[in-house]
Amino acid sequence: MTATIPHPSASPRPDPRAALSSDDRRLLAQLRVSALRCRAGARMELSRACAMVGTRRDLAPEAMLDALLATLGEALGRSPRFFRPTARALSFDESWLLRLIACLRAGDEASATFLLHSRVSRDVRRSVVHLVARVAAEVETLTAASAPPDYRSPPQPQRIAS
Predict the structure, then answer these.
(1) Closest CA to 21 of 99, 111, 133, 134
(2) For the segment 132-156, what is each residue's pLDDT rounded down to a tens digit?
(3) Residue 72, in any domain of the structure
(4) Disordered: where is this region (predicted)?
(5) What is the maximum alpha-carbon separation in the chain?
(6) For residue 54, which phi and psi values (nearest 5 degrees)?
């Protein structure tokens, strides 16, 4: 009796985004949209991005994310790969950046250091961690902007002054 083994490409692949939390999926969507904006825009030097972001509190979180993604190619030594917002696959660069942001948000400095040292050259690490830390601090704002409306609770009636 012979058994047939299905070809690996014939079996459906699980969606790697399913392993992400809903906040991470929204952040991934924001990363991808921002990457599209940055691809169409001009490149930015890492030092200029850090000077622009600096310690300004009035800068929009989307501008911080754009500054990070516009300079990520310089930090990695090659252009990062980001898929279109509707893609089911998850690139290594997307996964790496999501993990780095999660480590910085959780205060896991050992893992964040490992992730940085594994891909970013020594001379730009400080600048990259500054930009990523600023983005990590604004994740709630970034994900709230792309969150779908919550229809579970009914709208509250409001009194109209006459």
Answers:
(1) 99
(2) 999 999 988 888 865 444 434 444 5
(3) yes
(4) 1-20
(5) 85
(6) 40, -130
Residue in the structure block whose two tokens are 């952040």: 27
- What contacts 139, CB < 8 A, 6 or more positions away? 23, 27, 101, 105
Q: Is residue 16 part of a domain?
A: no
Is the pLDDT at 55 greater than 50? The verdict is: yes
Cα dihedral angle (61, 64, 70, 74), rounded to 10 degrees?
Answer: -140
What's the pTM value of the predicted model, to 2 decimals?
0.77
Please identify which residue in the block is written with the tokens 């030092």.
47
What is the SS3 assignment for 110?
Answer: helix
pLDDT tens across 38-52, in order? 888 777 889 899 888
Residue 11 lies in a domain: no
- Class of residue 85 by CB neighbours under 10 A (exposed 0-12, middle 13-18, buried 19+): middle
d(CA 77, CA 50): 18
Number of independent structural domains in the chain = 1
Separation CA 156–CA 158 (nearest Å): 6
Q: Which range marks the domain in which residue 119 is found?
A: 21-145
